[in-house]
Design a protein that fits this description.
Elements (H helix, E strand, L loop, with lengths): L11 H17 L4 H19 L8 H4 L5 H10 L11 H23 L4 H28 L6 H17 L3 H5 L1 H13 L10 H10 L4 H10 L3 H12 L3 H13 L10 H4 L15 H20 L8 H14 L1
């Protein structure tokens, strides 16, 4: 029977994880081994096809503009919108499909190794890294259109984005994966209590759970007085949009109510909550929640509405990029 591990589309650590999982499944879950082998063989085939494409740097699109770094930045932004899908290099579109397939493959391993905590945790970590690689692409586009970034920084980020498309991994997001992963773990461990809706309780709980993450502590100290960061943090903590938070706070003030419970929230909102409920048993919900907040931020920027213009994850990664660029 074929081996699960792929020597061309997975990292050495991922290959070892898949190999160890194969051994464990043969002893503990033989009925599922064929499904897993088939899934990873398809992932291998897809990965080989994706990485058989030439480097993005070798495509006519990039070769023609690479001589002008400012033009490169503007050109990458030109196809950042979903409406420009047919403008992007084929390898970029194919890579996204590969990352989705990789996420599903390692999620399958996670589901099948529930009785082996070490293997399950490692599989979840790979799936989580895929989520943040997909997020990283959005963060790069956000940075490239940010007027506060210098042309030199944007040029470096443009090349980093191209490197992500070529390799399927992002060195920067991997470097900060632990802090972002810890942030989500802490959020799951401290679901919002709402109460007075000031967010202090939720922030305190998360800060305690992340006390070992010095990067997060430094970020909070630097950004604590920034309204847009605070608003983005509140959206992340409460799982509600900025507009919904303001609506609930307005009603609390209007009727002299000091606090609100989770069960009472629905009656305070005129419609179904804007954002999806994040289910910690389904990591896809993390990406859904990110995209919903990102799209809301994009709309606010477009119509000049109050509220956060970037998600908390974007703000955090942009903060780290600035530090690394100084």
């Amino acid at each position: 029977m074929a081996s699960l591990a792929s020597h061309s589309v997975l990292t050495d650590e991922e290959e070892l994880l898949v190999s160890n999982t194969e051994k464990w499944l043969r002893e503990n879950n033989k009925q599922e081994i064929s499904l897993v082998i088939e899934r990873f063989q398809r992932l291998k085939n897809l990965g080989n096809a994706v990485f058989d494409y030439p480097s993005i740097k070798e495509t006519k699109f990039v070769r023609d503009i690479l001589v002008n770094e400012n033009q490169l930045t503007e050109s990458l932004l030109a196809f950042s919108a979903p409406s420009h899908m047919l403008r992007i290099p084929a390898k970029v579109a194919a890579l996204r499909s590969f990352l989705i397939a990789k996420f599903h493959a390692f999620t399958l391993l996670s589901n099948l190794t529930a009785e082996n905590e070490e293997l399950q945790t490692s599989s979840k970590d790979v799936a989580f890294s895929v989520i943040f690689t997909l997020m990283a692409e959005d963060v790069y586009f956000s940075c490239l259109e940010d007027p506060t970034f210098s042309n030199n920084t944007k040029s470096r980020l443009a090349h980093d984005l191209i490197a992500l498309w070529d390799s399927g991994t992002d060195v920067r997001s991997i470097r900060h994966l632990m802090a972002l992963s810890s942030l989500w773990t802490a959020r799951d461990a401290a679901p919002p209590s709402f109460g007075t809706m000031d967010g202090n309780t939720e922030l305190l709980r998360i800060s305690i759970d992340m006390s070992s993450e010095t990067e997060w502590e430094e970020f909070l100290k630097e950004e604590s007085t920034n309204d847009k960061t605070r608003w983005a943090l509140e959206e992340f903590l409460f799982g509600l949009s900025y507009e919904e938070i303001q609506q609930i706070r307005g009603r609390l003030k209007k009727y002299g109510v000091t606090c609100v419970s989770h069960d009472e929230l629905r009656s305070y909102l005129d419609a179904r909550p804007v954002y999806s409920i994040v289910n910690d048993h389904d990591p896809r919900a993390i990406y859904d929640f990110f995209i919903e907040r990102r799209d809301a931020c994009t709309l606010r920027k477009r119509v000049h509405a109050p509220g956060p213009f970037n998600t908390l994850e974007e703000i955090y990664l942009k903060y780290r990029i600035v530090l690394e660029s100084t």
